[in-house]
Recover the amino acids of this structure.
């Protein structure tokens, strides 16, 4: 029963990721796509947490931390690029 | 605590998290513009993933006696960064001149930052200068 609930949750989270992918494909503006990519990253964290419960293994928990950091940095870089035109600013001398 | 009790608690937490993730996905599809979509994508998705990770933390802590520090760090990190990321995207969207939905009735930033066309032109010029 517990494993069935976990499998159903994995399926539903994958469905949420698919829906966000549709928004990445369709999105009328660039920030729409970035918001959808950010929510894909957050949903992937939840997917890995449920998957590690399903496998009864703590080996996947590093991936949660890494994915959180990578999704955050990617979002920050994209939004800075849209706002300023560059992702990394250098001082002009 | 016996095994079935742990499983019931963890499955309730996971199901709440999955329901929140689904709600945020539907919001991402149904809402009319970037600013309302960012509500759906940042608030409920963050709460959903927090509840799911807390479920995993309780499962490993109660059933195997492994209280993972990495999971606590993940919870704190997601909780701190998701609102910041949402705010930055919305700021970039407004400043690059993404239009509001037609149903919007009020735009308090417009007298300060200029109209949509002005912002779009300004942003294009800024991109041009920096490249």
């Amino acid at each position: 029963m517990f494993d069935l609930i976990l499998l159903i949750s994995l399926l539903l989270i994958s469905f949420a990721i698919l829906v966000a992918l549709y928004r990445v494909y369709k999105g009328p503006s660039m920030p729409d796509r970035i918001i959808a990519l950010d929510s894909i990253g957050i949903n992937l964290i939840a997917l890995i947490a449920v998957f590690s419960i399903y496998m009864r293994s703590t080996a996947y928990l590093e991936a949660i931390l890494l994915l959180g950091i990578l999704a955050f940095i990617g979002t920050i870089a994209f939004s800075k690029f849209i706002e300023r035109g560059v992702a990394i600013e250098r001082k002009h001398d | 605590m016996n095994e079935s009790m742990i499983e019931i608690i963890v499955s309730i937490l996971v199901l709440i998290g999955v329901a929140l993730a689904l709600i945020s996905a539907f919001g991402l599809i149904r809402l009319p513009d970037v600013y309302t979509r960012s509500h759906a994508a940042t608030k409920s998705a963050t709460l959903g993933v927090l509840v799911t990770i807390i479920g995993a933390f309780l499962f490993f802590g109660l059933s195997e006696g492994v209280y993972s520090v990495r999971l606590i760090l993940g919870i704190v990190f997601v909780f701190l960064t998701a609102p910041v990321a949402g705010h930055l995207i919305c700021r970039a969207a407004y400043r690059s001149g993404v239009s509001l939905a037609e149903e919007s009735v009020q735009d308090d930033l417009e007298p300060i930052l200029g109209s949509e066309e002005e912002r779009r032109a300004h942003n294009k010029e800024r991109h041009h200068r920096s490249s």
